[in-house]
From TrEMBL:
Keyword Cell inner membrane found: no
Name the UniProt record assigns to this protein: DUF4440 domain-containing protein
Gene3D superfamilies on file: 3.10.450.50
Pfam family, one: DUF4440
Signal peptide: 1-18
This protein's UniProt keywords: Signal
Domain (DUF4440) ranges: 33-134
Xref: InterPro entries: DUF4440, NTF2-like_dom_sf
Length: 162
């Protein structure tokens, strides 16, 4: 009986801690990510990444300043009518490290008809001086050679962090 109670308490404590970490990550990563990306604010966007962040796309790896400089340059002076939303497959953390896998959907409303862009992401995060930072960000537009389309994600519930 004592073993069952101890196991139950451990499970409840672990679940509450995981939820707490997810809430912190949502507040310190995904909300500022969304706001900075939609506002084309390169400085705010770079602030949620570690100094030695790895940014991986198929065929390309940018590290640290190379990635952050490109963000600042690409976002400078841009005005875009777009929003970004996320849906998650996996959200795992163990205290100071976290790894999340999911999909993003970008809605571009700059034309008469909205256009949608989607992809899959893997993001590794680490708590640095008590604040969550993205240390590795990878995304792609296909899985096993199959293109990810808005239609392939229609059953997923997307979150817009505000």
């Amino acid at each position: 009986m004592k073993t069952l109670i101890a196991a139950s308490l451990l499970f409840i404590t672990s679940s509450l801690y995981a939820q707490s970490a997810q809430d912190e990550i949502d507040q310190q990563i995904w909300t500022p990510f969304t706001k900075a990306w939609e506002a084309n604010d390169g400085e705010a966007f770079n602030a949620i990444h570690s100094d030695d962040v790895w940014r991986i796309n198929p065929g390309r790896l940018l590290v640290g300043n190379e990635y952050k400089s490109r963000n600042a340059e690409n976002m400078q002076g841009q005005i875009r009518a777009r929003i970004i939303e996320f849906t998650f497959e996996t959200r795992t953390s163990n205290g100071n490290n976290a790894y999340e896998v999911g999909y993003y959907r970008i809605t571009d409303s700059s034309q008469e008809e909205p256009r949608y862009f989607v992809g899959r992401f893997h993001v590794a995060m680490k708590k640095i001086d008590g604040i969550w930072k993205i240390i590795q960000d990878w995304d792609t537009g296909e899985i096993n050679g199959e293109k990810i389309t808005p239609e392939s994600l229609v059953k997923r519930e997307f979150i817009h962090f505000e």
